[in-house]
Amino acid sequence: MKWNLEWLRTFKAIYETGTLSAAAQELFISQPGVSLHLNSLEAFTGHKLFDRSARRMVPTEKGKILYNYIIDPLKKLEIGEQHFHNRALDERITISIGMCFETFQYTLEEHIAQLPFNLIIKFGEYPQMQQDLDNGLLDLIITPQKGNQQNLVYQPFSKERIVLIAGCQTDTTELEALLQDNKIKEASQLLKKQLWYSTAADMDHLRNFWSTHFGEHPDFSPNYIVPNISSIIRCLSNNKGFSIVPDFLCAEAIASGKIKLVWEGQSPVENTLYFGTRKKTMYQEEISKLETLLQEKW
């Protein structure tokens, strides 16, 4: 195992600024990210490098020795970094975004070739995206969930409605009659006998919709578990079966008649969508451009 250069950069920033928060501001990462780097470096060296107090991080003797070892090499690296950066000002900035796969397909995929900067898309669970944003691994996330990290800010920009859909070949006559007559329990029992599509990674839509509108947890298993919601839309198109998905992901398929909107519920289930960013970032211009693209698509 070798030590990480970012650990040393963070150690230097803490040593010179005296606090974790000031080091975080200097490095444009979160304070938990700074703590993570320091803890990793201390674990690697096997020595405590700072005495922690409420107001200041005081370097230990081992911390002073390490600082004297690394300060000259790090300064040379910083000079070299600035030198080559000045010679390559026309190089493209790289922005990292966290979002779900379907959101990427629906919003950004068609615009990538026109973006004036590099883009890295990361798919995953929302709590991990929030942690990666806080630690500086992501610059922007699209999420229906707000975290409690103090270094992050969430801006609402849209809503998604969770709806019941069916393939256009599905006979929904009896179901629609039950729903129209407000026979909710009978409609629930009928739906449980149908063919269902879902995804392994996101059963929350089904559970939330079912508990909200039918007053119970869904006590059945979907017949087909597919990789993502886009797969559900393609499988249902011009076919039979049911699923529960966000409305914006199926709007085009509904408009083209490939699937049909069956029910939004008596009181629709809606999620607020947020842009998540760090409070301080060097890439505000690029992030604003991405946020504008996403808002226009929605």
UniProtKB/TrEMBL annotation:
Record's signal peptide: none
UniProt KW Acyltransferase keyword: no
Which SUPFAM superfamilies does the entry link to? Periplasmic binding protein-like II, Winged helix' DNA-binding domain
**InterPro entries for the chain:** LysR_HTH_N, LysR_subst-bd, WH-like_DNA-bd_sf, WH_DNA-bd_sf
The UniProt record lists the HTH lysR-type domain at 3-60
Keywords of the record: DNA-binding, Transcription, Transcription regulation
* Family statement: Belongs to the LysR transcriptional regulatory family.
What name goes with this protein?
LysR family transcriptional regulator
In which organism is this protein found? Sphingobacterium ginsenosidimutans
